[in-house]
Amino acid sequence: MPNPERSSILLVEDDAAMAATMVRALRSSGYEVELATDGERALALASSRTFALVLLDLRLPFVDGYAVLEKLRKRDHVPIIVVTAGTELADRLKAFELGAVDFLAKPFWIEELLARVQLRLKRPKRSEVARRVSLGTRVIDLDARTVTGVELTRVEFDVLLFLLDRRGQALTRDFIASGALSVGGEVDARTVDSHIGRIRKKLGAEGLFISTVWGVGYRCELEP
Amino acid sequence: MSVSLGRVSLRPSRRPPLVRGTLGGSLYGRIVVGTVLTAAGVVAAVYFIVHATLVDVGRTWGERLADRTRLAEWRASCEADPRHAAQDLGDGLRVVPFDVRSGRSLAGSIDHALATELEAGAPSAVRVDWLGRTVGARLLVAAGGEGPCSAFQIDRRLDHLAVKEIRVAWATALFVALFVLLAGALVAVLRPLLRRLSILERAAAGVGSPEVARQVSGSDELGTIAEAMARAFEQITLDRERILREVRVRDEFIADISHDVRTPTTSLQLSLEELDERVARDAPDARPLVRRALADVVYIASLVANLGMARKLSDENGPLPTLRPVDLRSIAERVALRCAIFAKRQGIVVEHALGEAPVLVMTDPVILEQMLTNIVENAIRYNEVGGRVALTLDRRGREGFVVHVRDDGPGVAPSELPHLGQRTFRSSAARERDPRGSGLGLAIVRAGCDRFGWTCGFATLEPRGLEVALEGPVVTETPPPGAIIR
Ligand SMILES: Nc1ncnc2c1ncn2[C@@H]1O[C@H](COP(=O)(O)OP(=O)(O)OP(=O)(O)O)[C@@H](O)[C@H]1O
Ligand SMILES: [Mg+2]
């Protein structure tokens, strides 16, 4: 029984082995998958029900993948990610022109496939911006600009906030400097190091949340 | 100017002979004939002028000498003794009487040719001899009446000095004639020759344009060279077209292969990825094997992609990639994600920090993606288990960007840094460690930077590792939204 909560994906792929691997991976990530091994079947399936996403290999037997893309696209406005071995820019441009939303270039990885699919199916969750953030045992109040148990300077608080907003992402010193420090004019990226050093020291055990990323800069980790 | 036809093979069977040997036709023959004719003309002219002048002089001289009184005197003494009437008058003058009717003389020999003129009724006949061994003039005059004393032959021999003068004058005239002749020949022959040579030179400079070579028409050597050049050019044009056609076929072949290889590579890559999952769970000791296989698959894929790209980038006659506004950030992100997956399976971490806003640059997105992939894949491939790779994108002021790819692998020796990006260069360490590798990757990065007007720098990191930096300008004015490629 199809689960209405689960996103359903139409996979159009003629290579049986590849299709099997892709279906397995998509299913185990929680998607519902229908497989069509040629263009005819794909079009028939697409008109019989609606899908949240179509994954279309442009190299299909007997028919031109682009024609299938165009027909699928005309039927309804389902987002289509094309899988292509084409190396020419023209191939990509053509796919985009015919309405593809993204492409996956061969050879690809399963993880890459899943990432691309997820990017399309992830629902934008515009949750209320939290005004209080917790970092380990400390709570950061964005309105009062306070951290429990610690005195941070205005600049240090800005830097911490900048990192917290992008938790889990690595950030370069330049990016932090231009985003959190510049009060007009360029700021030396090295001053970021000294600010971070002081923030870490003041936060104590929670300082471990801010890690140095080799070759990049800093990151506020989700877990210490 | 040198025309080398050495390497062009002209198949003689299908072509008329190149050299035409007729005297009038060849350049040499023309020069010879022209020179001889002009020389003969000048010599003849000089001869006739000198001769006519001398004859005139001789006649007036003779006539003055043989006036009526003198003639009467000579006649009187002749009639006294016709047999001994020849007399030397001194100063090289000698008078011999003869019969105007028979042309015979009782006193000496008479010039028959001149005598016949008198016989025909002329009052006098004159001959000037200025070329032979005896230089002088001879005058035959009729004295009236009949008999052995009715005419006189008067000879005048010139003395040695006068002879010399005449000869010098003659030689000078000849030299002048010769000089005039040569100058004339030079002007006449060289002018058109130079003109045609310059056409020939133009033709030689423009290999591949047989029409220009054909402008130097003619049946002499120059014309022959021009014709040979025109043929060679035609051959070259044909060869060029054939080679281009072959190259095109080969290029399409490479493109097709590189396209077709992608599908099996994908399924191989997917299978290995799945296998790696299972091996990690059930047989961790076999992981290095899978790792090697994965690295090989990635290597094959990038080799095939690089081959196609190198062909495109090195094709000087091919179309330049049209540069369009591209979001460098999203392309870098795609590369980072993809490479991180591969790296993870090699026990290497790839971090990326690309900022949040799109960074628009003028580029070809396919080439750019390949360039970044090559740099990051190097950083992974030459690294060891536990290694780290970082891909960052930052703005350089308002107008520029800089991409850094850093790794903490073995790096390259500082002395080898300048060679990075030279086609087929591989560091000695890399060759030792891994015999695979074409040395194409960074050459494509360099070529791409050249095309886009970017710079590409390499630096060694402390304590170890390599840093690759790409820098270039960003698009400052906002293009229409549809024009941006992500
Ligand atoms: N990150 C790196 N660390 C150490 N050496 C590197 C690194 N990047 C490049 N090199 C050196 O530069 C050489 C040239 O690299 P390049 O990518 O052009 O060719 P390749 O990797 O040998 O072959 P391929 O064409 O498959 O990429 C490499 O062989 C290696 O010696
Ligand atoms: Mg390489």
Average of the residue pLDDT scores of chain B: 82
Mean pLDDT of chain A: 88
Order of helices and strands of chain B: HHEEHEEEHHHHEHEEHEEHHEE
What count of helical segments of chain B does DSSP give? Answer: 11
Explain this structure to me?
The complex is a heterodimer of chains A (224) and B (486). By secondary structure, chain A is an alpha/beta fold. In chain A, helix 1 (16-28) links the parallel strand 1 (8-12) and strand 2 (32-36). Chain A is built from eight helices and eleven strands. Helices cover 41% and strands 20% of the residues of chain A. Chain B has 486 residues and is an alpha+beta fold. Helix content of chain B is 52%, strand content 15%. The longest helix of chain B is centred in the middle third of the chain and has 62 residues, at 221-282. Chain B starts with 26 loop residues before the first helix and ends in a 13-residue tail after the last strand. The model of chain B is unreliable at 1-24 (pLDDT under 50). The interface between A and B is large, with 36 and 44 residues. Bound molecules: adenosine-5'-triphosphate and magnesium ion (MG). Residues 303, 306, 374, 378-379, 382, 407, 409-412, 420, 425-427, 430, 437-443, 466 of chain B line the site of adenosine-5'-triphosphate. Adenosine-5'-triphosphate binds next to helix 7, helix 9 and helix 11 of chain B.
Could you write a compact summary of the structure shown?
Chain A has 224 residues and is an alpha/beta fold. In chain A, 41% of the residues lie in helices and 20% in strands.
Name the descriptors.
heterodimer, A: 224 residues, alpha/beta, Rossmann fold, Arc Repressor Mutant, subunit A, 2 domains, 5-stranded parallel sheet, 3-stranded antiparallel sheet, 8 helices, elongated, B: 486 residues, alpha+beta, Beta-Lactamase, Heat Shock Protein 90, 5-stranded antiparallel sheet, 5-stranded mixed sheet, 11 helices, 12 strands, rod-shaped, disordered N terminus, binds adenosine-5'-triphosphate, binds magnesium ion
